[in-house]
Write a structure and sequence with these properties.
CATH architecture of the largest domain in chain B: 3-Layer(aba) Sandwich
InterPro entries (chain B): AAA+_ATPase, ABC_transporter-like_ATP-bd, ABC_transporter-like_CS, ABC_transpr_MalK-like, ABC_transpr_MalK/UgpC-like, Mo/tungstate-bd_C_term_dom, NA-bd_OB-fold, P-loop_NTPase
Radius of gyration of chain A: 23 Å
Strand content of chain B: 25-35%
GO molecular function, one term (chain B): ABC-type maltose transporter activity
Strand content of chain A: under 5%
Number of helices of chain B: 9
CATH architecture of chain A: Orthogonal Bundle
CATH superfamily of chain A: MetI-like
Largest sheet of chain A: none
Number of helices of chain A: 14
Largest sheet of chain B: 6 strands, mixed
Radius of gyration of chain B: 24 Å
Protein name (chain B): Sorbitol ABC transporter ATP-binding protein /mannitol ABC transporter ATP-binding protein
Family (chain B): Belongs to the ABC transporter superfamily.
Oligomer: heterodimer
Strand order of the largest sheet of chain B: 6-7-8-3-9-10
Number of domains of chain B: 2
Shape of chain B: globular
Number of strands of chain A: 0
Pfam family, one (chain B): ABC_tran
Chain lengths: ~280, ~325
């Protein structure tokens, strides 16, 4: 009896889970399908779901009109660059907060988090002016810097949480064994925190890849990443749904694949420390 | 060489003085045990010597030179932690080799020293394993190996056996004592277990609330405890400490008599009379928990063969020469010679 209930429950939960999952995924699926339609079919009402004339012409035209690879390369440089630079700053910061906390450490952490609660547009004008005056507009370096700063609170918070899980005695042992601070971080702390650092890296690459506010406002062509690539299909000559969908598919494909392959690592990282 | 001197060392966390002031001399090659109840400051004192905590005031000298502000790694001390503190991502070999690598020694020297330490500690077959694949005792040996290879001036042990089961603890206790005899290096050992202290130490430092209550050899502490605290802490089962009229008869505020020194008889009479409550048979010994009229519970140790049961009436007599007398301030009253 009890078993039947459990099974029915499981079935119900599975159904609910799949429904939510598919609902969330539906817009992406729709964009992918639309990218294979002709422009006419893309706006047809009622829309056809799978039974339409499949075509690759949108992809060909998107590639012909703008250089996808240049945008993709910019995305890669900006997301990897900002994440790498962020780690360089955040690992020592998280180390000192986790292992040598002061009375103000908690306040600093909260203050850092609070900066993520402000709308970025609030600082758009000053940052734009700074970029203009320092000649950083439409440069990869400028975007790497600004995205690193935007995501730094998250990187520090995540690393801080992981580092807190590492027993302090192990670091003290390293200190007794003659490790300098740098060697202690490189030889002992970092290898032990690899799972945590890996998921921090993954999450930040995703955040930087998907970032669309700063990339759209601070770039034009040279340093424009894929988010700008999508946006460039949304306006001037009216909406071309099929081409916009093809551009979107191309833009999200790499990160979607990466997310798919690293989902185990991501979930593990995000729930790290929840259970001992 | 490894002579260590603590000169008026104090430690405060904020406004709380954990170590109100300690003076201590540790001679080269000595096995010194810091013992005391939890929170008595013994681990803090060890960490001050190690350099893992900064002293608030006072000085620490190692072999005569001031080490008070010297970084932990440069004090030539090796520490074995309660949690072993092995590097989980490194093999046993690399764990033991780590301090040598940090010291920049060449590969051949490292290999020779690590293999030498592994031989002494029976770890040769485990060098390629990770700490996670070892038992508690083996992990503790790796931690000791990591300490040995540095050839330190002194070893610091912070409750190294408290995570091991009872049987293993006895073995490791013996191994550490043997290691001390063969290396003849200064060892400072922190424990809350007075049996470990008694069995291993050349010199025991009894700590209570950050203060040294007494320093002496195990038998000195056993035979001549300086105060009520040491009397109650050293010895197992605990010394019987009695107050009130029984103590006043002997001219003291508190008298103490060890369970093994009480003379027990079942019929002939004696100074105190009581009814046996719990009887603990250990085979070699029997512990009697006696409810003495007018005194309260008293523990006595008798031979293993004696047939005394729950509910029996017994007479207990403390031999005057075995009686410890303490004044109202808790300090021992020494007989005028």
């Amino acid at each position: 009896m009890a078993r039947a209930v459990t099974r029915r429950r499981k079935l119900a939960f599975t159904l609910v889970g799949w429904t939510i999952g598919l609902t969330l995924f539906f817009p992406i699926l729709w964009a992918i399908l639309t990218s294979f339609k002709s422009e006419g079919e893309a706006i047809a009402s009622p829309p056809s779901f799978l039974f339409f004339h499949w075509t690759l012409e949108n992809y060909a035209e998107v590639q012909a009109r703008s250089d996808y690879l240049l945008y993709a390369l910019n995305s890669v440089v900006i997301s990897l660059g900002s994440t790498g630079l962020g780690l360089l700053v955040a690992i020592p910061a998280a180390w000192s907060m986790a292992f040598a906390p002061s009375k103000r450490t908690k306040d600093i952490l909260m203050w850092m988090l609070s900066t993520k609660m402000l709308p970025p547009v609030g600082v758009l004008v000053p940052i734009y002016l700074l970029f203009r005056d320092f000649g950083l507009l439409d440069t990869r370096g400028g975007l790497v810097a600004v995205l690193m700063l935007m995501n730094l609170p998250i990187i520090v918070w995540m690393l801080y949480t992981y580092f807190k899980e590492i027993p302090g005695e192990i670091l003290e042992a390293a200190r007794m064994d003659g490790a300098t601070l740098a060697k202690e971080i490189v030889h002992v702390l970092a290898p032990m925190a690899v799972p945590g650092i890996a998921s921090t890296v993954l999450l930040n690459i995703i955040l930087a890849w998907n970032e669309a506010f700063w990339t759209l406002n601070l770039t034009a062509s040279d340093a424009a990443p894929l988010s700008a690539f999508i946006a460039s299909y949304s306006s001037p000559e009216g909406l071309f749904w099929a081409k916009l969908s093809a551009a979107s598919t191309l833009a999200i494909a790499p990160i979607l694949v990466m997310g798919w392959f690293s989902q185990k690592q991501l979930v593990r990282g995000l729930t790290f420390g929840a259970v001992k | 060489m490894g002579a260590i001197t603590l000169d008026k060392v104090t430690k405060a966390f904020g406004t709380m003085a954990v170590i109100p002031g300690v003076d201590l001399e540790i001679a080269d090659g000595e096995f010194v045990v810091f013992v005391g109840p939890s929170g008595c400051g013994k681990s803090t004192l060890l960490r001050l010597i190690a350099g893992l905590e900064d002293v608030t005031s006072g000085a620490i000298r190692i072999d005569g030179s001031d080490a008070t502000r010297v970084a932990p790694a440069r004090r030539r001390l090796a520490m074995v932690f309660q949690s072993y503190a092995l590097y989980p991502h490194m093999s046993v070999y690399n764990n033991i080799a780590f301090p040598l690598k940090m010291a920049g020694q060449d590969k051949a020297t490292i290999r020779r020293k690590v293999e030498g330490a592994a031989r002494i500690l029976n770890l040769t077959d485990y060098l390629e394993r990770r700490p996670g694949q070892l038992s508690g005792g083996q992990r503790q040996r790796v931690a000791i190996g990591r300490a040995i290879v540095r050839e330190p001036a002194a070893f610091l042990f912070d409750e190294p056996l408290s995570n091991l089961d009872a049987a293993l603890r006895v073995n490791m206790r013996l191994e550490i004592s043997e290691l001390h005899q063969s290396l003849k290096t200064t060892m400072i050992y922190v424990t809350h277990d007075q049996v470990e202290a008694m069995t291993m130490a050349d010199k025991i430092v009894v700590l209570n609330a950050g203060r040294i209550e007494q320093v002496g050899s195990p038998l000195e502490l056993y035979n001549r405890p300086a105060n009520v605290f040491v009397a109650g802490f050293i010895g197992s089962p605990k010394m019987n400490l009695l107050e009130g009229a029984a103590a006043e008869r002997h001219g003291a505020a508190t008298i103490g008599i060890r369970p093994e020194h009480l003379e027990v008889s079942t019929g002939a009479g004696g100074e105190w009379s009581g009814v046996v409550g719990v009887v603990e048979h250990l085979g070699s010994d029997t512990f009697l928990h006696v409810q003495v009229e007018g005194l309260g519970p008293v523990t006595a140790r008798v031979g293993g063969e004696l047939d005394i049961r729950h509910g029996s009436r017994v007479w207990l007599t403390p031999p005057p020469e075995r009686l410890h007398r303490f004044g109202a301030d808790g300090q021992a009253i020494r007989q005028a010679a």
